[in-house]
TrEMBL record:
CBM39 domain ranges (all copies): 35-139, 151-256
Xref: InterPro entries: BGBP_N, BGBP_N_sf
Name of this chain's protein: CBM39 domain-containing protein
One example GO MF annotation: carbohydrate binding
């Protein structure tokens, strides 16, 4: 018996060694070990939208997502994947690589299946697919949209001039107190991956020209084949927000080449003045006709229903202008808002004329929650 103990101990050690070796027989591939260090967050928004982000890292040159959303069916084992999102980003926002689709519909009970990718040292690595069941939706707590959605509503135009000059502009908006640009222009070099950025423009403006925030550098040389890299900034309520960087290749289409040297702005200004006068006359005629039809009972007031408005709305004028700005057809109506006030269950607004009120009601039909204050008053009296 004494001679068998070493044999038993040796046998047990061999079994343990074999078990350890069996665990290491199929180690994780290097790319999966690399990908496991990145924490990816997924958040669904109400009433629509989905956000995916990961923390900035020197190991990430590009971050991407391949995501599918589906509903379960009793007749099928797998969900019906009826929505998908495939996006890559190369720049960060507030220290994060952020992907945001504001229109994606996600509902409680949906299944999300996704994998992410990372570009590092010219190598693209993919994670394994992951699944998650949607149980909780994030709700916006602030009246303004989040950073990216806020910036995406501004359309920025870039135009090159000959023999020199560049113009950058965006349409006037009550959400812009200052508009700025950070722009670089460079030429491609066969010996370098990135263009040689030898020209730059960094300017902020706080006033508008012909309804636009306009930045104009008359001396900047821009040529066909150049690359323009830029981002713009907006100041609103003491907060400066930056867009992501954008790139564009300079082609013939970027140049404004008028057929003659006559400046068209004066003609446009004269035409616009005549149009304004004609518009004012038409408004007077229509106002008179409306009074003949409905008498003087029709007012200029609208009402935006909102439960708990007293606690939710601190600036009724900003609230009204922001709501109108969300509908492109209603943006011109912002200039015709005279006053706004907060009520117990909504926000009231007085437009410049009855015609302005009717335009909001008609153009905002099924797009914005607004009612005729006169109808609301009639219902309350009844």
């Amino acid at each position: 018996m004494m001679n068998k103990r070493p044999t038993i101990v040796a046998f047990i050690m061999c079994v343990l060694a074999a078990a350890v070796m069996a665990q290491d027989e199929h180690p994780l591939p290097d790319y999966l070990v690399f990908m496991k260090q990145f924490m990816v967050h997924v958040q669904a928004r109400e009433p629509s939208g989905i956000m995916i982000w990961t923390r900035d890292s020197p190991l990430i040159e590009m971050f991407g997502i391949e995501l599918h959303i589906g509903k379960h069916s009793h007749s099928q084992k797998e969900p019906i994947w009826d929505r998908q999102l495939m996006v890559n980003v190369t720049s960060t926002v507030d220290g994060k690589f952020l992907i945001h689709d504001r229109d994606m519909i996600v509902e409680v009970g949906d299944t999300i299946r996704y994998r992410f990718l990372v570009l590092h040292k010219r190598t693209v690595s993919h994670s394994n697919y992951r699944r998650m069941l949607v149980t909780v939706m994030a709700q916006d707590e602030h009246p303004l949209p989040d950073y990216l959605v806020f910036m995406k509503q501004f359309m920025v135009h870039v135009q090159a001039r000959e023999p020199s000059g560049i113009m950058i502009w965006t349409r006037d908006s009550p959400l812009i107190e200052m508009f700025g640009i950070e722009l670089h222009i460079g030429k491609h070099s066969h010996s370098q991956k990135e263009p040689i950025w030898d020209r730059q423009l960094m300017v902020n403006v706080t006033s508008t020209v012909d309804g636009k925030f306009l930045i104009h550098d008359r001396d900047m040389i821009v040529e066909v084949g150049d690359t323009i890299r830029y981002r713009f900034l907006v100041l609103h309520k003491r907060t400066v927000s930056h867009s992501n960087y954008r790139r564009m290749l300079v082609t013939d289409h970027l140049f404004n080449r008028p057929r003659n040297t006559k400046c068209l702005s004066e003609c446009l200004a004269r035409d616009q003045a005549g149009y304004r006068q004609e518009e004012a006359r038409m408004k007077e005629i229509l106002e008179h006709k409306i009074e003949q039809c409905v008498g003087s009972q029709s007012s200029e007031y609208l009402f935006f229903p909102l439960e708990g408005a007293i606690t939710l709305v601190s600036d009724p004028m900003h609230f009204i202008k922001y709501r109108l700005w969300q509908i492109e057809d209603l943006r011109p109506a912002i200039d015709n808002v005279l006053t706004a006030y907060v009520a117990q269950n909504g926000v009231g607004v007085k437009m410049r004329t009855v015609i302005d009120k009717l335009k909001v009601l008609e153009l905002g039909r099924r797009k914005i929650n607004v009612i005729d204050y006169d109808d609301r008053l009639t219902e309350s009296l009844n």
